[in-house]
Amino acid sequence: MVYQANAARYESMEYRRCGRSGLKLPAISLGLWHNFGDSTLLENSRQLLHRAFDSGITHLDLANNYGPPPGSAEENFGRILREDFLPYRDELIISSKAGYTMWEGPYGDWGSRKYLISSLDQSLKRMGLEYVDIFYHHRPDPETPLEETMRALDSVVRQGKALYVGISNYPAELAAQAIDILNSLGTPCLIHQPRYSMFERWVEGSLLNVLQEKGVGSIAFSPLAGGQLTDRYLDGIPADSRAASGSKFLNAEQLTEDKLKKVRKLNAIAQRRGQKLSQMALAWVLRGDKVTSVLIGASKISQIDDAVGMLDNRHFTAAELAEIEEILV
Ligand SMILES: NC(=O)c1ccc[n+]([C@@H]2O[C@H](COP(=O)([O-])OP(=O)(O)OC[C@H]3O[C@@H](n4cnc5c(N)ncnc54)[C@H](OP(=O)(O)O)[C@@H]3O)[C@@H](O)[C@H]2O)c1
């Protein structure tokens, strides 16, 4: 059956200006890091993308290495794009990145001009796209001159292979330098993608202030700490969960009793607010006006529905914020 997007898809999503750019991003974006590689059923990935777009999630985040195996998320996404989403290409913001190991040898990693430009060419081929909307440098490279990496980002925009560029995982001071270089080249930095959740707060007070000052947007990845800030692990580790999947990013050892104690207390506050913990955790990341979008992952359609349901209750009282703060310290 030909996919037909929900006619009401723009009715409930909120779109937020990304820094001082002309681009608006949905308050919730979907990442394809997990559940889009060759180890996942293509039909499940397809259903997730349908539900996301039908809910107004116009921004889909990829990277060269997403899979497993690396590259397969872009390939599978490319296939679904071709089969279902081509009529909607201009309604989508598709991002990719390069910065982690992608191929063997000295040119398949880090931040050289050689790596970034070749990698984006490969990503475009895998996805069947002429351009991505956002291309990121995925992580800082301590050896390549920052000027070279930023010039490569500037080049891909001038070559028409990306409309905007961004950086990810850059600490505050380096981010400020990168943003200044990009400005001097005439290609402003659109966005920074840091990890940010109730359990990972390094961006507060440093990076987020730099970004706000310089008019750069921010998109918080892993806002649910990979699923820890949900009700998923309250009664053990379900067999179909990330923690049970053998992931090196979330495993049983990370789910300590101390952490679960915090999760239970946070869950009680969420219940009092009449929402799920996952929803409260997303609303918390979006509190204030410093984060443009939360970048979630999902293995099930219901998880996308949960995230979108968050938009109905985003307000926190000062007392609630203080209570949450006490749990998190
Ligand atoms: N720039 C970077 O370096 C970087 C690094 C990491 C991620 N990212 C980006 O950020 C995206 C999101 O990362 P993430 O997947 O770690 O985000 P996350 O939103 O913190 O975690 C998503 C996982 O939480 C669980 N979950 C989600 N909603 C739930 C709900 N309502 N109830 C119960 N469990 C729920 C699911 O895990 P189950 O599998 O257990 O169902 C889901 O896959 C990635 O896809 C990628 O685009 C970027």
Question: What is the fold's blueprint, element by element?
Answer:
Blueprint (H helix, E strand, L loop, with lengths): L14 E3 L6 E3 L1 E4 L10 H13 L4 E3 L10 H14 L7 E6 L14 H15 L4 E6 L8 H13 L3 E7 L3 H14 L3 E5 L13 H8 L2 E5 L35 H16 L4 H10 L6 E4 L4 H9 L8 H11 L1
Bound molecules: NADP nicotinamide-adenine-dinucleotide phosphate.
Give me a quick take on this structure.
By secondary structure, the protein is of the alpha/beta class.
Structure in words:
- With 329 residues, the protein is α/β, with parallel strands linked by helices.
- The protein has a domain at 15-231 and 289-300: NADP-dependent oxidoreductase domain (TIM Barrel).
- It is built from 10 helices and 10 strands.
- It has helices at 42-54, 72-85, 113-127, 146-158, 172-185, 207-214, 257-272, 277-286, 301-309, 318-328; strands at 15-17, 24-26, 28-31, 59-61, 93-98, 132-137, 162-168, 189-193, 217-221, 293-296.
- The strands form 2 sheets. It has an 8-stranded parallel beta barrel, surrounded by 6 helices. The chain has a two-stranded antiparallel sheet with strand order 1-2.
- The N and C termini lie far apart (51 Å).
- Bound molecules: NADP nicotinamide-adenine-dinucleotide phosphate.
- NADP nicotinamide-adenine-dinucleotide phosphate binds next to β10 and α9.
